[in-house]
Amino acid sequence: MQQRINLIPQKPLADRIKHLIPILFVGMAALLTLFFVVWIQLLNGRLTDLNKQIVHLETQADQATELSSQVARLKKNLQDKDNAIRRKNTDIAGLTKIGAHKKRFSRPLRHIAALVPDSVRLRSLTFTGNSGEIQGTALDYNDLVDMIHHMQALSVFANVSLTVTDRSTDKDQERIEFTIQMRLT
């Protein structure tokens, strides 16, 4: 058999493998190092994103706490205002009741004020329930009688009666003390 003659000298395979192993280890180590560096960078980026999200969530939690405290304050203010409105409505109801009670006597008072002549001076005017009493002085008896007749003609008054309590004459002027009693209808 013929042997082939190798004209280019070559290293044996074992020597070649021995020289390649350190290069492969260094390459693998470089690749692993590169892999870990990239992985650490990705993890750091993810941690940074998570930290930003945590800060954002903490800010939102603080805002939610502040908002809930504002809501509590507004609820308290609303409740205080509601209580104030209820108190005012109670006061209004009481005043309306008083006003209605006063309104009952305003019509008779208006008629009495319109009927009183210049010669008659009223000293007191008292209403108790459905009855009333007027006390005063008159300078002319006829004016007083006319006032009584006008009061009897009105539908506001009933059972109008005149009582003269004192009659005196001073310096050619007559002075009559009187009491008028009436019932309101």
Description:
By secondary structure, the protein is α+β, with helices and mostly antiparallel strands. The protein folds into 2 domains: 12-106; 116-184, Threonyl-tRNA Synthetase, Chain A, domain 2, CATH 3.30.980. Helices cover 63% and strands 23% of the residues. It has 2 helices and 4 strands, in the order αββαββ. The protein has a 4-stranded antiparallel β-sheet, with helices on one face. The longest helix is centred in the middle third of the chain and has 103 residues, at 13-115. The chain starts with 12 loop residues before the first helix and ends with a strand. The mean pLDDT is 88.
Report strand order across the widest sheet: 1-2-4-3
Which structural class do you get from the secondary structure elements?
alpha+beta
Shape: rod-shaped
Largest sheet: 4 strands, antiparallel
What's the average pLDDT?
88
Our estimate of the beta-strand percent is 15-25%
String of helices and strands: HEEHEE
Number of helices: 2
Total domain count = 2
Radius of gyration: 57 Å
Amount of helix: 55-70%
Count of strand segments:
4
Q: Distance between the terminal alpha carbons, to the nearest Å?
A: 158 Å
Q: Could you list the spans in which at least 5 consecutive residues all have pLDDT below 50?
A: none
